[in-house]
Amino acid sequence: LLVLFAEKDSSFxxxxxxxxxxxxxxxxxxxxxxxxxxxxAIGSRNVKVVALPLRGGFAQRILQLLAEGGExxx
Length: 74
Prior knowledge:
Layout: E1 2-5, H1 11-18, E2 26-28, H2 35-42, E3 49-52, H3 57-67
Parallel strand pairs: 1-2
Antiparallel strand pairs: 1-3
């Protein structure tokens, strides 16, 4: 599971990081991505966390774009 966070200091982030499913989750807090940016990318309001299954090609493409240093909102 790929989990993207707008706020790395959240209690939910810490609970996933230290929880029993930590080894099954890839937790990312992309630099420069705010709650407003994440919300706009999803097309909703007050989005702080986005989770994507790693099996799908969409999550792999997001990881590729982040590794390439893609635009903040691409």
